[in-house]
Amino acid sequence: MLLEGKVAIVTGGTRGIGLSIVKSFLAEGAKVALCGSREETVTKALDAIKAENPKAPVLGYWPDLTSNEAVSAMVNSVVETWGTLDVMVNNAGISQSTPLLDYTPEEFQRAMDLNVTAVFNGCQAAARIMAPKGTGVILNTSSMVSIYGQKSGVGYPTSKFAVNGLTKSLARELAPQGVRVNAVAPGVTSTDMVAALPEAVVQRISMGIAMGRPGEPQEVADAFVYLASDKASYVTGVVLSVDGGALF
Ligand code: NAD
C-alpha cells in the first residue's frame, strides 16, 4: 500500500473530491482526519465510511478553516491522537459564477477567505509539525480555472491562482526542510454539483474537454494518492492538471 502508516488530514472531506481522497487514502493504508463545515455533514461522512469498514482509522473535525487558531488546534489534536502528521490536503473550496458588476465585496471576500486564507492556515499549521521532523507532504486543490480563468465569477479563478502561488512558493521555501508542496488542478469533475446538471449541459461542457466527458472524483483522488506517496519523492512545486485535456 502506498500510504501505509501515514497520518493525513483532508479538509472538505465530507463529499465530492475530498471524500474520494479520504477513501483512497484509507484504502492505501493511511489514518485520515476529515474536516467539513458542519458537525452533521462530518458525522454523515464518518457513518458512510464506517458502514463500509467499521475499523477504518478515521476522525472528523469541523473547525472554522478561516481561523488560524482553529486550524492549528485541529492539527494539534490530530498529532496528539496519532503522534504525527505526514500529509495535509487543503481541499475545501467554494466556486462562484457572479458577473463582475453584480459582485458584492462580501462575496469576493468569501472566496478569498475559504479558498486562500484557509489554505494558508492549513499550510502553516502543517509546516509547524512537518518542518521540524524534516519530512511531510502538503497538497492543495487548485482548479483548471487557475490556468484558463473563467468567463464569470472572477473571485473563484483569482483565488485558485493564489493557491498556485502559495503552492509554488512554499515548495521552494520548505524543500530544504524535507517538505514537498504540490497542487492538483481538477477540470470539470462529477461531484454532486455537476451530477445535478441536465444531460444537455453536461454534453455542452464536455465539448470543451479533449476526452469528451467530465472526470470522476476517483480519477482526481488518484492524483492525490500519487503526490502524497513516496512515488512522487522528487516532485515538488507542481500544479498537476487532471482535466481530460481541457480545451477552454
Ligand atoms: P463540494 O462542494 O462537493 O465539497 C466541498 C467540500 O468543502 C465539502 O466537504 C464542504 O464541507 C467543504 N466546505 C465548503 N465550504 C466550507 C466552509 N466554509 N468551511 C469548511 N469546509 C467547507 O466540492 P468539490 O467539487 O468536491 O470541490 C472540492 C475542491 O475541488 C474545491 O477546492 C474546488 O474548488 C475544487 N474543484 C472542483 C471542481 C469540480 O468540478 N467539482 C473542479 C475544479 C476544482
Features:
single chain; 248 residues; alpha/beta; 9 helices; 15% strand; globular; binds nicotinamide-adenine-dinucleotide
Q: Can you offer a commentary on this structure?
A:
44% of the residues are buried. The chain has 248 residues and is an alpha/beta fold. The protein is 48% helix and 15% strand. The protein has nine helices and seven strands, in the order E-H-E-H-E-H-E-H-E-H-H-E-H-H-H-E. Strand 4, helix 4 (105-133) and strand 5 (136-141) form a beta-alpha-beta unit. A seven-stranded parallel β-sheet has the order 3-2-1-4-5-6-7, sandwiched between helices. The chain is globular. The model has no long low-confidence stretch (mean pLDDT 96). Nicotinamide-adenine-dinucleotide binds at residues 12-18, 36-37, 41, 65, 91-95, 114, 141, 143, 186, 188-189, 191-194.
